[in-house]
Write a structure and sequence with these properties.
The protein contains 13 helices and 19 strands. It is α+β, with helices and mostly antiparallel strands.
C-alpha cells in the first residue's frame, strides 16, 4: 500500500524527523489560506499522486500551465494560483504512462535554502532477508539514472536483524554522503528514527529524495515515498486509514475486495489461473506464442464459485482484453467449481471475446461436462501449450 507525500511527511514528523511545515489543499479556494499560514518567502506547491517524476511531468490540460507538478511560488497569491491550475487536472509522468493521474490534492509547504541534495532509502533485500540501506550523494535525480551512469556513487549495506541498527550504521551513511561535524550526529539520529519507523510500520520501501543539507548546515528531508506490506496492514489501522482508493486501478481495487491476486498489465489476453507459479507460466507461454497478457490473476487454491465469477467480471471489464484464457490445475481447487463460476459470469456479463478453457486435475471430467452442457461458445484446450496456441490464434487470426 502506498500513501501520499503529505501523509508520509506527517508520519516522519511524528517520529521526530525534520521535515518542512506544510498544508494539504483539497479545494482551490482553500489554497490562499493554507499558503498564508506558512512563513515564506518561498512556497513549494506539489501535486499529490502516487507516482514519481512529478517535477518533470506535464499536464494534459493547457489550463494547468506549462510547468510540472512541483512548482516554486514567491508569494501567497502565486502559490494559490498554482494550486488552482493543478487541482482536477491530469498529470503525466514517466511512472504514470500517457494516461496520467488526476490531481485531487495539493501540498503547499515552506521552501528551503538548499546547499546539497542526497538520496537515502530503506528497502527489503529479498536475497539476504534483511533491511537494506541505500545512500547516494546524487540526490534529486532518479536513482535508476544514477545506477546506470555512475554506479560507484551508490552505497548499499544491510542490517543484521540479530543486532538491529546501531550508531555505526548511521555514521556509515553520514560518511558516504560526505557529512562532517554536528551533521554526522544529526544523521545518526535521523537514520535510527527512520529505521524504527520502517520496522514499526511494516514498510516495504522508504525513499527520501532529496535528503538535504541546508545553507545553515542543518539536515532536512524534503520528499518521501513510502510503501507498506499489504499483508501486515491489519496490524496498523492508522496506516490503513491513509489509503486513497482513487489512486488505485479500479480492477485491482475490486480484486482486493474479493481476496484475488490481480495485477493489470498492458496486453490483450486476459488470464484466470490458480496458483502464482502457474499464472507466471501462463503469461510466459502467451508471450512465447506472440501475444501479451492483459493481467496476472491468481484466484487461489480455495476459490469459491462467487470468487471465480468476480474474477471473470474483472477480466472482462478491461477494454484491452480481446480474448480470455482460463488455465486451471485442480489440486485443492476443483475444476467443477471453476466451470460453474465461468458459466455464472458469462451469463451475467455476456461473452464478447473468444474464451479458451483448459482444465486438469480434481473433478476435471465433471468440469468439462458442465462447460460442454452449458451451450456456451467455449474453446476447449487439452494442455497449456494447446490453450496458448488456441487463444493467440483466436485473437490474432
Amino acid at each position: 500500500m502506498n500513501i501520499h507525500e503529505y501523509q508520509a511527511k506527517a508520519l516522519l514528523r511524528s517520529y521526530g524527523i525534520p521535515v518542512s511545515d506544510g498544508r494539504v489543499v483539497l479545494r482551490a479556494e482553500e489554497a490562499k489560506t493554507a499558503a498564508g499560514e506558512l512563513d515564506g518567502p518561498l512556497w513549494v506547491v506539489k501535486a499529490q499522486i502516487h507516482a514519481g517524476g512529478r517535477g518533470k511531468g506535464h499536464f494534459k490540460e493547457p489550463e494547468a500551465g506549462e510547468k510540472g507538478g512541483v512548482r516554486l511560488a514567491r508569494s501567497v497569491g502565486e502559490a494559490a494560483e498554482f494550486a488552482r491550475q493543478m487541482l482536477g487536472r491530469t498529470l503525466v509522468t514517466i511512472q504514470t504512462g500517457e494516461t496520467g493521474k488526476q490531481v485531487n490534492r495539493i501540498y503547499i509547504e515552506d521552501g528551503s535554502d538548499i546547499d546539497r541534495e542526497f538520496y537515502l532509502a530503506f528497502l527489503i533485500d529479498r536475497q539476504t532477508s534483511r533491511i537494506s540501506i541505500v545512500a547516494s550523494t546524487e540526490g534529486g535525480m532518479s536513482i535508476e539514472d544514477v545506477a546506470h551512469n555512475t554506479p560507484e556513487k551508490i552505497h548499499t549495506f544491510t542490517i543484521d536483524p540479530a543486532t538491529g541498527l546501531q550508531d555505526f550504521h548511521g555514521r556509515r551513511v553520514a560518511f558516504a554522503l560526505g557529512l562532517s561535524g554536528a551533521q554526522v550526529k544529526s544523521c545518526v539520529g535521523i537514520v535510527k528514527n527512520l529505521y524504527r519507523m520502517f520496522t514499526d510500520k511494516d514498510m516495504d520501501m522508504l525513499e527520501i529524495n532529496p535528503f538535504c543539507v541546508l545553507k545553515d548546515g542543518s539536515l532536512k528531508l524534503l520528499d518521501a515515498k513510502m510503501a507498506f506490506d499489504g499483508n501486515a496492514i491489519y496490524r496498523h489501522p492508522d496506516i490503513a486509514a491513509l489509503r486513497d482508493e482513487t489512486e488505485e486501478d479500479p480492477k485491482e481495487l475490486a480484486a482486493s475486495k474479493f481476496d484475488l491476486n490481480y495485477i493489470a498489465l498492458d496486453g490483450e489476453i486476459g488470464c484466470m489461473v490458480n496458483g502464482a507459479g502457474l499464472a507466471m507460466a501462463t503469461m510466459d507461454i502467451i508471450k512465447l506464442y506472440g501475444a501479451e497478457p492483459a493481467n496476472f490473476l491468481d484466484v487461489g487454491g480455495g476459490a469459491t464459485k462467487e470468487k471465480v465469477t468476480e474474477a471473470f467480471k474483472i477480466i472482462t471489464s478491461d477494454p484491452q482484453v480481446k480474448g480470455i484464457l482460463v488455465n486451471i490445475f485442480g489440486g485443492i481447487m476443483r475444476c467443477d467449481i471453476i466451470a460453474e463460476g465461468v458459466i455464472a459470469a458469462v451469463k451475467e456479463v455476456g461473452l464478447k471475446v473468444p474464451l479458451v478453457v483448459r482444465l486438469e486435475g480434481t473433478n476435471v471430467d465433471l468440469g468439462k461436462d458442465i462447460i460442454r452442457k452449458s451451450g456456451l461458445n467455449v474453446i476447449a484446450a487439452d494442455d497449456l501449450k494447446d490453450g496458448a496456441e488456441k487463444i493467440v490464434k483466436a485473437v490474432k487470426g
